[in-house]
C-alpha cells in the first residue's frame, strides 16, 4: 500500500476518533449558561480540519461551562494546520490561548487550551498565572469554584469553599495554591479538631512551590516559624509584610486587616483600629466583589460606635446578590446598631432558620458590643437545639459555655458542660476539669466543682483513667493544679505542681499546647509574689512580656493569664498598668469577657477615669442583665457604683 494512502487512512482514523470521542462525551447543557460561542473560523484547506471545527469549539465550550463562568462571556477562535499538526487558538474576554498537536489527542488539546484560558482570566499577576497553568484542568476548575464560593462568603471549617479547595488538592497533591486557600480558611475559622493539624503540616511542605507573594501569604496565615507557634505580634508583622510583597493582592490586605483587628487589641498594638480600617479599605478597593472586607469594615464601625458608617456599609452589603453564611448576622448588627425595630422583628422571626455561622456570630458579637443580649439568648437556644453529632456538640460547648458564664449563669454553664462528650476538643488548651478550676477562680464558677475537679486531676496525674475530653493532657492538668493550690494557699503544693509541669514538658514527645509557657509563667509570678521573693518583679515582667507578644486567641489561658497579671500589678500599687491590661481583649472567642470588664470599671474609677469606668460597667451590666440568683449581689454592687459615677457622687469601689 502506498505511503500516502497509509497517511490518508491514518488521518481519517485520527479525525474519526476525535469526532467519536467528542460525540460520545458531549453533554447536554441548559441554554442559559452565560457563554456565547461564535463559530470558529477555519484557516486550513484540509476538509478534515473543517470537519473538526464544530467538535473543537463545542468541547472547549463544554469545558468552560463546567467552570461556571459569569454571564456575558464570548468565546471566539480559529482552527488551522493539518490533522497531524492541528493548531487551535481561542479568545475568551482578555484571555487568549493557543495549542498545537495531533487530532487524535483532541480531548487533551482542548483541556490544555481551556485551562490556559481560565488561568489567564483568573490570574492577577504572572506568579499566579504560572501556578494556575501548572495544574490539571479538573483541579483548576475545582480551585476556581472554591474561589467563587469564597467571594460569595461561603467559607468556614466545613463549607462549600473548603470542599472545592480540598478537591483541587486531592486531584493534584502538588497544587500549592489550593493548599494556601485551605490554610487561610483553617486559620480564620478554625479546624474541626487539633488532630487535623497534619493538613497544615502537609500544606507547609508545599511552600517551596509557591511564588514570593503566595509564600508571604502562607507565612501570614501560619506564622513565619511554622510548625512552631507564632506570637500574635509575629502574625501581625507577617500580615503587614505580605502587603509589602504583594500590594496588588486583595488577600494580603485582607489578612493584614484581620490580624490588626483580631490580635491588635489583645496585645495593645498602637493604632490597631486605623490600621485595620486602612487594610480592609485597600482590600475592598482592589476587589469589591469579595464580601468579607466589607463585613469587617461594618464590624469595625460597630466596635467604634459609628452608626453612620454602619449604615453606609450595610447599604453596600444589601447590594450583593448573595451575602454568604453571615448575611443574617450582618443584617442583625446593622439593625441593632441603628435601632431598626422593624428589621429586628423580621430577623427574630427567622432566627431558627438562620445558618449556624450567623447564630454563632450573633452570640459572640452581642457580647463584644454589649447590645442585643436577648437576641443572643434566642440565637444560643436555636444553635443548641439543632446540633446532633458529637462534633456539633463540641462546637456548642466551645461557643455557649463561655457565653453563659459571661451572662452570669454559671449553673447553666456547668449543666451544659456536663453534656460534653468530647470536652472542648484538641484545639483547646483545657479539658473539662481544668476549665472548672479556672472558671471558679476567675469567672464566678462553682468552687465546690473546682475542688472536685482538682481531686480528679490529682488522681489522673497519679495514673487514674479519665473519660475523653475531661483533661487536655498531663501538662495542662499539672498547671491547673498549680493554680488551684495557689488560690487555696498551698504554696508548697503549687510549687511541686509547677515543677511537675515543667518536667512533663521537657520529657513529652507530643506537640506542646501553645499556652503552656504562659500558664507556667503566670503560676511562677503568683508564687514569687506570694512568697515575697526578691525576683517577684522579674517574674511579673516575664509574664507581661509573654502577654505583650500574645498567643492563640482561641485558647483560654491567655485571658486567664491577663486576669492574673491585673491582680499582680494592682497588688504592687500599679493601677494604671493593671487598667491597661484589663482593656486588652479580642473580639473573637470571648473567654473571660465579663471579669476584665468588671475590673476595668473598678480600676478606671480608682484612677479617675470616670467616663471609662461608666462604659465598662454599662457593658458588664448589659452582659449580666439576667443573672442567676447567686450573682445578684455582685450585680447590685456594680449598679450602685455606676449610679454613683453617673451622678458624680464620691465612689468607693469594692475590693
Description:
The protein has 655 residues and is mostly helical. Among the domains are: 120 residues, Double Stranded RNA Binding Domain (2-Layer Sandwich), CATH 3.30.160; 203 residues, Serine Threonine Protein Phosphatase 5, Tetratricopeptide repeat, CATH 1.25.40. The protein has 31 helices and 5 strands. Strands 1, 2, 3, 4 and 5 form a 5-stranded mixed β-sheet that branches. Strand 2, helix 2 and strand 3 form a beta-alpha-beta unit. The protein starts with a helix and ends in a 9-residue tail after the last helix. The N terminus is likely disordered.
Instruction: Please name the CATH architecture of the domain at 390-592.
Output: Alpha Horseshoe
Please tell me how large the radius of gyration is: 30 Å
Instruction: Tell me roughly what share of residues is in helical segments.
Output: 55-70%
Q: How many strands, which pairing sense, and closed or not: the largest β-sheet?
A: 5 strands, mixed
CATH topology of the domain at 390-592: Serine Threonine Protein Phosphatase 5, Tetratricopeptide repeat
Structural class: mainly alpha
As residue ranges, the low-confidence spans are 3-32
The tally of strands reads: 5
Instruction: Please report the first level of CATH classification, the CATH class of the domain at 390-592.
Output: Mainly Alpha
Count up the helices: 31
Mean pLDDT: 87
Instruction: Assess the beta-strand content as a share of residues.
Output: under 5%
The shape is: elongated
* First-last Cα distance: 108 Å
